[in-house]
Write a structure and sequence with these properties.
This protein has 232 residues and is an alpha/beta fold. The protein is built from six helices and eleven strands. It has a nine-stranded mixed β-sheet with strand order 5-4-6-7-3-8-9-10-11, with helices on both faces. Strands 1-2 form a two-stranded antiparallel sheet. The structure holds adenosine-5'-triphosphate and magnesium ion (MG). The site of adenosine-5'-triphosphate has 14 residues, from helix 1, helix 2 and strand 10.
Length: 232
């Protein structure tokens, strides 16, 4: 039996046989405003509160103070109290040194003995390097390091609206053990939020596109409902 890490996001774990296989690296892809950051935070918050698993949130973009305040304002989740109990760490990496980023992640995971890790978001890695091949090489390096760390990791990947790509650099999806996609689907004049599990190595997973809702309780997936992508 493989050990699983429950996201605790309502309706999601059952789409992949009970949770993410422990130690996996999962790419979380989606367009702007699809709920990527919320997903990452909810994964760590649930991990800390329900499963007593410490988690590290590495922001490559937003200031930790803002992330913490926004989460409290929107969902009432008190991240600071988890940080004080060493069940959570929210850090921001400097944007000029890739080796420092790796060292920072390793140190922080080690400091709080983290079992869960979120990196938000990978497109920023492009800013560390001048050339695309360097970025790709760095992603391979990072994934190797993540494997050794033993955490269950979510790497957020922003994808431009309306493109078939599911990652910024075209290699992340092959390095990742799993891929979860957050969609904004157009149905007539309304945009519907939805989620699909595109890949999850070593386990059964559902392949439908399911509606999700974002409320004051965070993301909820509706596993028995489906939405259909319109062919353009
Ligand atoms: N309390 C709330 N109730 C309902 N919806 C909310 C609430 N708080 C935030 N949202 C919605 O959740 C969405 C998700 O935001 P989030 O920052 O997680 O998306 P993202 O994919 O990380 O965006 P970005 O592309 O800017 O990084 C917001 O666009 C907003 O519509
Ligand atoms: Mg975000």
């Amino acid at each position: 039996m493989i050990e699983r890490v429950k996201t605790g996001i309502k309706g999601l774990d059952e789409l992949m046989g009970g949770g993410i296989p422990r130690g996996s690296t999962v790419l979380l892809s989606g367009g702007a405003g699809t709920g990527k950051t919320l997903f990452g935070i909810q994964f760590l918050y649930n991990g800390a509160i329900r499963y007593k698993e410490p988690g590290v949130y590495v922001s490559l973009e937003e200031e930790p103070g803002r992330v913490i305040k926004n989460t409290l304002d929107a969902f009432g989740w008190d991240l600071n109290s988890l940080i004080n109990k060493k069940l959570l760490s929210v850090i921001k990496a400097e944007l000029y040194n890739f080796d420092k980023l790796k060292a920072l992640i390793e140190d922080e995971v080690d400091r709080i003995k983290a079992k869960r890790l979120v990196i938000d978001q990978s497109a920023i890695l492009g800013l560390f390097f001048e050339k695309k091949f360097q970025v790709r090489k760095s992603i391979f390096e990072l994934s190797k390091m993540l494997k050794n760390l033993g955490c269950t990791t979510v790497i957020v990947s922003e994808i431009p609206e309306g493109t078939p790509a599911i990652s910024s650099f075209g290699v992340e999806e092959f390095v990742a053990d799993g891929i979860i996609i957050l969609h904004f689907l157009r149905e007539g004049n309304v945009l519907t939020r939805a989620l699909s599990v595109r890949k999850m190595r070593t386990t059964y997973h559902d392949t439908g596109i399911h509606p999700i809702q974002i409320t004051k309780k965070g993301i909820e997936v509706f596993p028995t409902e489906q939405v259909f992508e319109q062919v353009k």
